[in-house]
Amino acid sequence: MKNTQIIDSMYKAFATGDIPTVLGSMDPNIEWNEAESNKLADGNPYIGPDAVLNGVFARLVADHEYFKLADIELHEMSNNKVLATLRYDAKNKETGKAYNAQAAHLWKLKDGKVVAFQQYVDTKKLADAEIK
Description:
With 132 residues, this protein is of the alpha+beta class.
């Protein structure tokens, strides 16, 4: 499978809530980094799928009424990398504020598994949604 197909499958699984498939696409030693100034960056780097599950995904669910990925475009790059440009369509549970933020994800793969992830996002929009 091409790297873009692997990443596309992960996004489709995430959209349907199939988190075991998302985690199964990750190398056991994945290094996951959230964007600087994102409150989830407090655990950077998250090492391993369990760290991503508990430090990122579980917190997204806890903090949001909904969190969707939209307008995903995948760009195959050299050196087993894939760049995804997308938007976060989400609503903060505590404040009730919705946001639509521009984001990019840089994925690195090896032997069909994701070994690294770097998020880039409009952290101001995320932070503004948390202000009461």
